[in-house]
Amino acid sequence: MHDHETGSRICFRHAAALLLGGIALAAAMPASAQACYDGIVQRGVVTSPLNGSFQYVGQPVALQAAAVKMYGKWVITGPNGTTTLPAAPGAINWTPTVAGSYSATVLMFAPTSPAPGQVSNCLTGGPFSFVVTNPPVYIKPKYQVVGVYYSPPGAKSTATYSAGFTSGTSTNVSSSFTVATQVSLTGGWQSLDKANSASGTVTGGWSQEKDNSSQITIGTQESTGTVVPGPLSSTLGVDHDYDIIWVWLNPELSLSPLATQIMVNGYSYDANDPVAGADIVPIYVGELKGTLAIPSDLQYRLQRPWDTTTGALTAADYTNILAADPFAVNPSFNPNADTSGRYERPRSATYPNGDTTAVNYIPAPVGAAALCYPYSFTATSTSALGQGAKDTRSVGFSVDAKYSSTTSYGILSAETKASTTLTTSNSWSQSVSSGSSQSAAFQICGPLATDNYTGYSAMQVWKDNVYGTFMFFPVP
Fold this sequence. Notes:
- The protein is mainly beta.
- The protein folds into 2 domains: 12-133, Immunoglobulins (Immunoglobulin-like); 137-475, no CATH class.
- It contains 8 helices and 30 strands.
- Strands 15-21-20-11-26-27-14-17-16 form a 9-stranded mixed β-sheet. Strands 1, 3, 5, 6, 7, 9 and 10 form a 7-stranded mixed β-sheet that branches. Strands 18-13-28-25 form a 4-stranded antiparallel β-sheet, with no helix packed on it.
- Strand 5 and strand 6 form a beta hairpin.
- The protein starts with 11 loop residues before the first helix and ends with a strand.
């Protein structure tokens, strides 16, 4: 048996040294004695805290090994040095007092002494690391844009996003702060409820998932399929007044500030909103522009009477939201001439450089019914340019005093560029913009002769790289 092995075992002399000075059940032993009766020290399983997890200053951290009936002697190293905790059975609560990076190891053993100076069934866990941050601050942006759906051409046309299709966007708030941000979410899709953050699959509702170290994807996966209708009239062909922008009316964002970094813990919702859960509503572009009437119930929700700090959405907010759809603010926008990467032809294994299939929008002869054409488009990859496309806006915010740490808010305020606005950049998401389920079926019905359509009879289909949906553009 070697005196020292890395990873799977620890040296017996070191094991004995760890046991000294804290274990009443085992007598002190010379450094050269073997600590384990059978001479074997094996790897044990640590269940808490998880490697790479995030904890809070002033809140107990449960130190727990899988072998719950065994004694554990924990050694924790952090910004203030190394702390050796007295050996104790089962879980041990340890409360950090300083934020920073930590590492820990544990020696587990049975509470028996088969021979003088020895213990049995030795297991070792670690080293593993975790980060301790200051308690969170919950900031409440007035609203957040999380999706855009585009109306197909023709009053009888439909765009169907089938079950499994994921729409949404990847959000980043780093430009709001003077220090770097890092996302602390782990695992897969998670609830937007701060009281229930268990991981799970997003099905039919809005959830969140860590996209990378600085971005969180907010998305929804179709469970039964969503059908986006065409405009009221076929006369204009593509009428972007009937595009739909999804707006989150009660978002909350949990942030834990450190001296040189801000941990982004994830999103939740403001429970003051009488709408239970995340209040995410579809708003037609025409409703925001004033060309379509806003239904009274939706108008009431946009008033946000439950929020007396940032209040109702205003005309300025409507303009800010409209910027999520380039066609809403610039009717002459042409994706063929755009260099931002916002749109590209759908890429897949079949069409690695983009599907250039033309969609017919041909007027019917006088007295004839509209001609309808079925199409299907799939996007499973995105170009490097498309992955860099962004949709950025700044909105007012307030602080949820009920859940937020006053001390942490003082630190966060000093690291915030603007005291009253939060800047969010939406961009390409790996979760939203790729995968075999990222396809949609279209039924495109051309205009009748009586519609007096005078536009082009061919349409291009483009993928929105920021929100993951499909858009139509007429071409000669």
